[in-house]
Structures are given as C-alpha cells and as structure tokens.
C-alpha cells in the first residue's frame, strides 16, 4: 500500500487542519497516511512513497522558518520526487506559495497541481473538498 507522510508547521491550527483533510482524501484513495508536526520531524519523516509539506504564509509572504530549516536538512533525500505543498494564508494573495513552488522546482522536485492554498480555516464544504481532492491527487 502507498504511504504518504504529511509534514506541516502551524501557528494557530489552520494549516494542521488542511493537513488532516488532505490525509483523509489520501486515505480514501487507499494510502496509509502519517501527519507529522515539523517540530517533531526528523530525517525519517520523508521515508514514504509520497510526501507533502505544509506551511502558512508568515513574515511578509514567507514560508515558516521551521519548515525552511527542516527542508534544508532533508532535501538531498528527496531529489526527483513530486511533492504536495499546501498552507493557509490571510491578507495576501498566495505569494508565499509561488515563492515556495519556485524554490522546490529549483531543488529538482515537482509539485502536485502547483500546491494548495486555503484562506484561513477549513470552514466550509468547498474547502474541505479541495483539501481531500488534493490528498487524492498527491497519491494518485
Ligand atoms: C506573524 C504572522 C505573519 C503573517 N504573514 C502573512 C503574510 O505575509 N501573508 C498572508 O497572507 N498571511 C499572513 N499571515 C496570516 C496567516 O498565514 C494565517 O493566519 C494562517 O491562517 C495561519 O495558519 P496557521 O493557523 O496554520 O498558523 C501571517 C500571520 C502571522 C501570525
């Protein structure tokens, strides 16, 4: 069975919620899913068939420093993979995801469907379905 590890940073829980729904979608599609807070992640966190990374927009359209640091430590292990990227934002227009996407591509990786961005919390059916669909796409 395919495995998906989802590693995320969250400040107030919104990106964690996205991670959970992505996980549900991937499980429905038959994958075995692990959710890992980046603060508890280590090198073995990326030992899975599929990997997804989540970070909200922080700073001024930036990826959480915790996630940047984690990624630097494991990037050599995942060269050539196609990964999921997702996160929550508020007042911006998703600039942090564009930057993140570009950085990931420069590292020799590909991104499933250009990433998934959700405004604040996953608080309606449309957002829930988007997250689940992204989970299916990551393991599809
Ligand atoms: C310190 C800080 C910086 C932020 N910077 C941005 C930003 O640059 N652009 C944006 O759209 N939202 C920004 N936000 C809003 C968060 O991305 C938004 O609240 C998000 O839902 C937080 O996700 P989380 O609950 O997973 O931490 C910022 C929030 C905080 C607390």
Describe the model.
This is Flavodoxin. The structure is a single chain. The protein is α/β, with parallel strands linked by helices and 140 residues long. It has helices at 14-28, 65-74, 95-106, 125-139; strands at residues 3-8, 32-37, 50-54, 57-58, 62-63, 82-89, 110-111, 116-119. The strands form two sheets. Strands 1, 2, 3, 6, 7 and 8 form a six-stranded parallel sheet that branches. α3 links the parallel β6 (82-89) and β7 (110-111). The longest helix has 15 residues, at 14-28. The radius of gyration is 13 Å and the shape is globular. The structure holds flavin mononucleotide. Residues 10-15, 56-61, 88-92, 120 line the site of flavin mononucleotide.
Helix-strand string: EHEEEEHEHEEH
Structural class estimated from helices and strands: alpha/beta
Radius of gyration: 13 Å
- What's the number of structural domains? 1
Count of helical segments? 4
Straight-line distance between termini: 12 Å
CATH architecture: 3-Layer(aba) Sandwich
What descriptors fit this protein?
Rossmann fold; two-stranded antiparallel sheet; alpha/beta; 25% strand; 6-stranded parallel β-sheet; 37% helix; 140 residues
Please render the helix and strand layout as text.
Elements: E1 3-8, H1 14-28, E2 32-37, E3 50-54, E4 57-58, E5 62-63, H2 65-74, E6 82-89, H3 95-106, E7 110-111, E8 116-119, H4 125-139
Parallel strand pairs: 1-2, 1-3, 3-6, 6-7, 6-8
Antiparallel strand pairs: 4-5
Bound molecules: flavin mononucleotide.
């Amino acid at each position: 069975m395919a495995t998906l590890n989802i590693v995320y940073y969250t400040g107030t829980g919104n990106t964690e919620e996205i991670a959970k729904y992505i996980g549900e979608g991937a499980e429905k599609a038959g994958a075995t899913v692990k959710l890992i807070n980046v603060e508890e992640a280590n090198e073995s966190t990326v030992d899975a068939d599929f990997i997804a990374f989540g970070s909200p927009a922080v700073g001024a359209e930036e990826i959480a420093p915790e996630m940047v640091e984690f990624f630097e430590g494991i990037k050599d292990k995942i060269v050539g993979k196609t990964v999921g990227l997702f996160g929550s934002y508020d007042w911006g227009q998703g600039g942090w995801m564009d930057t993140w996407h570009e950085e990931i591509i420069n590292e020799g990786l590909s991104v499933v469907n250009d990433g998934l961005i959700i405004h604040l919390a996953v608080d309606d059916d449309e957002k829930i379905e988007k997250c689940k669909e992204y989970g299916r796409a990551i393991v599809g």
